Fold these 2 entries.
Entry 1:
Amino acid sequence: MPKSKRNRPVTLSKTKKKGREHKESIVSSIRQAVENYSSTYVFTFENMRNLKFKEFREQLKSSSRFFLGSNKVMQISLGRSVADEIRPGIHKVSKLLHGNAGLCFTNLPKEEVWRLFDKFEEYDYARTGSTAIDKVELKEGPLEQFTHEMEPFLRKQGMPVRLNKGVVELVSDFVVCEEGKPLSPESARILRLLGIKMATFKLHLVCRWNPEEFEIYQEGLKTLTKHRNPHSTDRHSDSD
């Protein structure tokens, strides 16, 4: 019987080498982007949705390039101090790469960048662990939006339901979620069933650098502070 490829041992030195080569490739790409594009932006994101972000990147592909991933790698690429920055003043950009942040290199005028980022907004169903933005409570009585086949599933989600002449019925009031509290897996599933979207995927500009100037955007800076996580400097790497 042939051996499974899954069970073949991989030496640690090889995995470390591949990881190092990947990081070096990202560093090289970011440094090249600094040369190829007129402006560098730091942006933050809330409720990231990969497919929607990919669509946004595609929309700007001819004029811009985006990087998401390890903040530490992005910081090293630009330089984290005056001593090691690759262009004068660009280390200030590195200092703002924290938490849910990314880099955008672009040749677009800053007014156009502002317009595109400001109007970008996508609503979606909230995921487990997200903070509920409102209280959702279902009152006792029939739930006619659900078919009788769903009654066992709803019970598994903790809902006090029963079948009454083939109609799903709540036997008492039920709070799906409380405003300001994290969503449980059950709450997230129920909200999806109810068609209630509580997550908004948004992008916020934090700062802009070019060889002539550096400016910080206070509104974006507030979101960076709000979502800053000291343990999130080494997330997955993804560029272009």
Entry 2:
Amino acid sequence: MHLTLSSERVRSTIMTNEEGQVLYKTSTPFRLGTRTTTLYKAVPNTDSDDMQDHMEAIGEIEWHLIHPSKMRLHGQEMMTNTFIPRHGFRGRKRTFTGPDGLPYRWDMDFKIVRVRTCLNDFLYSSALTCPGTQLSRNDATRQELARSHRRRLGIIGPRRDPSLDVDPGLMNILDTIILTFVYVEKLRRDKEEQAKQSSG
């Protein structure tokens, strides 16, 4: 599945599918102190007189600077330090267990974010085929299941809006993938901004 983002600022963006249908939306009103990002999902309207889908709040991320942030999804609250803890030398990996009981890992590269499964003996039947996506396997299976793409202005190569490609095998846990993506992509952008400020 290819989701196009209206903005690279994932805390306030609209995500649409290939047909241009809005599937998710995030909103983070400005306020002093703790900010909260709300994740909305398009829900089909049951009213036969009004065929327009409506947006339903399904999750939140309560951002904290000193203490761990909080995530809420479908009424379940999770602390980020235990639900999606950091790993790796520079803390660029975040692992979590999906609602399907399988372990996943987000890798925050300097320019993109991707998610992989962390199982040794598990392979998804379908692989992503979009440009720049790699199926990788190390000693343990590390099949790539989702990848973000930055905006390209089209100066060199074709123009491209920011997007997220998600393996079709993850549709049953897509809400979790989207919420965790918003979290790690915001962290990645923060690290990128810090690097820019320290180098210039």
